[in-house]
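Continuing the batch. This is chain 6 of the set; chains 1 through 5 are on the previous pages. Same settings as before, nothing changed between runs. Recording input and output for traceability.
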Amino acid sequence: MDIASLIGLMGGLGIVILAAVMGGSLGGLIDIPSVLITGGGSYLCLYLTYPMSYAVGIFSVMGRVFKTFDFGEAAIVQKLVSFSEKARREGILALEEEIQDLDDDFMRNGLRLVVDGTDGEVIRALMENEINQMEGRHNSWISLVNAWATLAPGFGMLGTVMGLIGMLSNLADKSSLGPNMAVALVTTLYGSMMQNWLFVPISTKLSYQNGLEAKAREMVLEGVLSIQAGDNPRILAQKLMTYLSPKDRKLIEADVLKD
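Output for chain 6:
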């Protein structure tokens, strides 16, 4: 589990509750009709914005922010360097048996193209298209979360206006003006919280995860093309290690840059 996401979720809510308790207004922050207008109304608008499968699937996608993803960048470097060394010693066809057991479909398909003698430009085009399509799918879901982030404050204001209309229609009862105004403003609070506490941070984390996966695939692409071009394994290693953090680079450079 991604502990950082859990800390952000619970910590943000906890700060709001603590501030409300200290201000003596915790009970005033709870209003079911406001929840229905802001949460329910903005969510149902997603069905108008995107296909039903997206609106239904948004919760499982948002749940990804609580998972940790390790795309194994260091392992990618080591594996591709090993393939490069084998291809240099025994020829490209020697990789045919090696790639059968690969768990990474993207790497296996790329190396299969190399073994089949496919031109480097064709390999690049095919693999880049795969990366672009992956990012397109991810960005569609990220856009959906951003759409909810945009809709929530609008429905919060809608609920506030509805509350003000009800309050102004009963101005004769002056004792109810304060409580009614407080309830009217709660929907604005809910909309702002949904946007700034939930959806914007979630979409940002999803974008970060997308970037990590895209970077890992770009590493594979560069490695596959380097093997296809017959580059020296040491050159391949140096090229791929530029994608790694200084810490990860130090851990593997002795192995992959050996003489």
